[in-house]
Amino acid sequence: MVFGGARGIGAAAVKRLAEDGYDVSFTYVSRPDKAQELVEHIATAGGRAYAIKADSAKIDEIRSAVADAVAQFGQLKAVVVNAGIYRGAAIEDVTLHDLDEMLNINIRAVFLSIQASIPHLQDGGRVVTIGSNVANHTGHPGSSVYQLTKTAVAGLVKGVALDLAPRQITVNNIQPGPVETDLTADMIEHLIPRSPLKRVGKPQEIGALISYLVSEEAGYMTGASLTIDGGYTL
């Protein structure tokens, strides 16, 4: 199951997991056209995907989405928590609304999505969160709240990994740098010169790392935060 799977990194995760043979449920909060397009793309390729409209800021919708996913495809094998938002502003300009929204989506919803999924996740299953390289490196002025939330996610996975270790469930965090999505389209030309590799990441590259972390080969890795950012944090 992928929380926040209709676009960008989330959609790449859905596609890659479907390619790996998983039946994939995913949530979306807007753009039902993109969600349906993704379902049809996977069906054309011979896989199965199921789109669920759910707002990660609302616990009832998170729980309902998990129940819907289980009803559709059965017990969960892997959970990817990708839902997140960014609201950039200097500290003196951050509104209470934007602060609460980022805390709710980027921290609270991550916790609640994992918590709601655990009773339906098989022993030996996988949990992957999508954080950010700003947990290790300040990207630019105006990112203080975003950095706060992504640092919290990196800490969260360590504790959750210990809680779930007796069930052989691994919990890991991916920390991407800039990735080419519709959300970063206007910033790419400014981001490329800052990268040692002189490019931004591709959603498929994040999807490939997700694929590894949910595989049997990654069974000895848990509580880790893996940075994939083309050298931004070097």
Automatic annotation (TrEMBL):
CDD domains: SDR_c (cd05233). SUPFAM superfamilies: NAD(P)-binding Rossmann-fold domains. It holds the Pfam family adh_short_C2. InterPro entries: NAD(P)-bd_dom_sf, SDR, SDR_fam. Signal peptide: none annotated. Belongs to the short-chain dehydrogenases/reductases (SDR) family. PANTHER family: 3-OXOACYL-(ACYL-CARRIER-PROTEIN) REDUCTASE, 3-OXOACYL-[ACYL-CARRIER-PROTEIN] REDUCTASE FABG. This is SDR family oxidoreductase.
